[in-house]
Amino acid sequence: MQFTEVKYRVAAKGSPREILGGISGSASPGEVLALMGPSGSGKTTLLSILGGRAGAGAVEGSISYNDEPYGKSLKRRIGFVTQDDVLFTHLTVKETLTYAALLRLPRTMTREQKKERAMDIIYELGLERCQDTMIGGSFVRGVSGGERKRVCIGNEILINPSLLFLDEPTSGLDSTTALRIVQLLHDIAEDGKTVITTIHQPSSRLFHKFDKLILLGKGSLLYFGKASEAMPYFQSIGCSPLIAMNPAEFLLDLANGNTNDVSVPSELDDKVHMENYTLENNNSKNDYRPSAQDVHEYLVDAYETRVAIKEKKKLLAPLPISDDLKATITSSKREWGTSWCQQFSILFCRGIKERRHDYLSWMRITQVIATSIILGLLWWRSDPSTLKGLEDQAGLLFFIAVFWGFFPVFTAIFTFPQERAMLNKERAVDMYKLSAYFLARTTSDLPLDLFLPVIFMVIVYFMAGLKATATHFFLSVLTVFLSIIAAQGLGLAIGASLLDIKKATTLASVTVMTFMLAGGFFVKRVPAFISWLRYLSFNYHTYRLLLKVQYDPVPEILTTTKHMDNGATEVAALVAMIIGYRVLAYLSLRWVKPPSS
Ligand SMILES: Nc1ncnc2c1ncn2[C@@H]1O[C@H](COP(=O)(O)OP(=O)(O)OP(=O)(O)O)[C@@H](O)[C@H]1O
Predict the structure, then answer these.
(1) Ligand 1 centroid from CA 18, angstroms
(2) What contacts 24+ positions apart, CB below 8 Å, involve 263-267?
(3) Which residues contact 354 (CB under 8 A, 6 or more apart)?
(4) What is the pLDDT along the chain (597 residues), one digit of tens a residue?
(5) I want to staple 383 with a disulfide (CB 3.0 to 4.6 A). Which of 99, 205, 389, 449 is the partner?
(6) Which residues on adjacent β-strands are paired with residue 15?
(7) Is the ipTM of this complex over 0.90?
(8) DSSP-based three-state secondary structure for 8
(9) CA distance 185 to 161
(10) SS3 content of the chain, % helix, strand, coil (to 5)
(11) What residues have CB less than 8 Å from 448, skipping those under 6 apart?
(12) What is the CB < 6 Å shell around ligand 1?
């Protein structure tokens, strides 16, 4: 790939700010290109632009991949490992790579071949010992940092990408693990791939593994060329270390404008006046160092005048490319790895595996069992034959309607905000259709969501002495199920439209409280101007259905003045909510842009 004069500007507080000022370079198949520079020099920005993931700023310059511009199908041939790559916490290493293989590898491969490819990657990356360990996260112990990085790389090399981009794959790792990862990148490149990686502070052993190097300083190019020729180049412009130094450390010092233990050229000495020097330690002339800004300007000038023009000429000469490759790269057709149904079933299984730990955690089970036992004891063998007993029992039915209207909203609300990063990442490489993800994600929770209410209902129903026939019990459970699915829809819609957990919980609390108050238990004779509110409340419809199941006809004292027929209106209202909220959630997910984090 080649890129010339890449510039990037963002609007900061109204005025444009230049992040990258004309960067040129290239990397060919078989090469590892390292992007180095101090923190904030623009490495990640450049990598993102080259990987087709530029942010909201304006990009100028030309970027070509084997002489062709970035195209849709190229997206599938690029692997991109970000700095804080997202992985599912509760999946094992093997599950993570297998699901990625099933979703990303082409349709021409069978399911078995895809699974084999995932296993090959596990062995290639030396992950066989931890293949059954959970990935883990902040609250769950899992694989080590180095293993996690290798899983992220594995996720991308699965698809055999022509171009692999990595943002700081070695940060936070010890030098041996870092070397292992860079050696791996080297091996991947030797297979005919182009690898471009940002790197923070490589050891000297690591530095020598790179074929090409781009050194950035404050968004400007200080060096582009072979990594092995970087030191001779800086020597040729009068900058060389005065003591034995790791070349990477020397280059970063220079890019930072720090010239301690570095000889500076006479041009820089002459150019800089005494007032531009910063005083260090004592007053002798030898202890004055050029300012960081002067060093930066000198290095940018030196590169521009001595190397840039020559290099740009080389870059602008097009590389030969076969017609077949050209056709693949320029084709704008989207290619999905699997059919819609397969995407749905893979995502469904992945969803269940990832979430079963949350749903079936002892904390949740204890919470539900404890609540149901307390309710059972409070309403122990309740008797609706007296007016007081009837009102008491209706209170229990209302509590059930509220409890199972409240709980699912607050679990579903986190679904999309939490998975936003993963969804963005996977959708960026066309792993699946949004509709397949949405349907799988919203249905994979159901079996788990409906498991706890059954336990709850069994305990409460029989302890409280509600109508003890199979039909009454099953109709009550069915009503609770409808309420849960409707409430879940509301949670999904709020989460998907706000994509921010704090805002979503605030809105959900207000909505759920309003629905609860409008539920027909506290105020039965609701003023006409506000009575429409209760028709939107799933608590209202659930409560009325539960009353209908227990007492037929429902005594007027328990319900509103509205005549209650066979319950079809309430069922229809709940079904309309189930569908309506989900459609709203889907549309929000499709159209709402995530807030910048
Ligand atoms: N969208 C943006 N809006 C405002 N500033 C931005 C934007 N994107 C990048 N920057 C700024 O551009 C500079 C370069 O950022 P970048 O993340 O590319 O640096 P980096 O070299 O990768 O740093 P590090 O090594 O610390 O990750 C930073 O000062 C950053 O704040």
Answers:
(1) 11
(2) 263/238, 263/239, 264/238, 264/239, 264/289, 264/290, 264/295, 265/237, 265/238, 265/239, 265/298, 266/238, 267/238, 267/298
(3) 88, 89, 90, 91
(4) 888 888 888 876 667 788 888 888 888 888 999 999 999 899 999 999 888 887 777 888 888 876 667 766 677 778 889 887 789 999 999 999 999 999 988 888 899 999 999 999 999 888 999 999 999 887 788 899 889 989 999 998 888 888 899 999 888 778 888 888 899 899 888 888 899 999 988 888 889 889 999 999 898 999 998 899 889 988 888 888 888 888 889 999 888 888 787 787 777 666 555 445 444 444 444 556 677 888 888 888 888 887 777 776 666 565 555 555 555 444 555 566 788 999 999 999 999 888 877 767 788 889 999 999 999 999 999 988 888 899 899 999 999 999 998 888 988 898 888 888 888 888 877 889 999 999 998 888 888 778 889 999 999 999 999 998 999 999 999 999 999 999 999 999 999 998 888 999 999 999 999 988 888 788 777 787 888 888 888 999 999 999 999 987 777 777 654 556 778 889 999 999 999 999 999 999 888 765 544
(5) 389
(6) 12
(7) yes
(8) strand
(9) 12
(10) 55, 10, 30
(11) 352, 355, 356, 359, 360
(12) 10, 12, 19, 37, 39-45, 55, 57
41 CA distance to ligand 1 middle (Å): 7
- In DSSP terms, 64 is beta-bridged to 2
Q: Identify which of 44, 166, 597 to mutate to test ligand 1's pocket (most ligand atoms within 8 A of the CB).
A: 44
Residue 187 CA to residue 230 CA, distance in Å, equals: 23
SS3 79: strand
Closest approach atom of ligand 1 to CA 167: 22
At which residue do the structure tokens 């981009």 appear? 165
Residues β-bridged to residue 69: none
Residues 6+ apart with CB under 8 A from 12: none
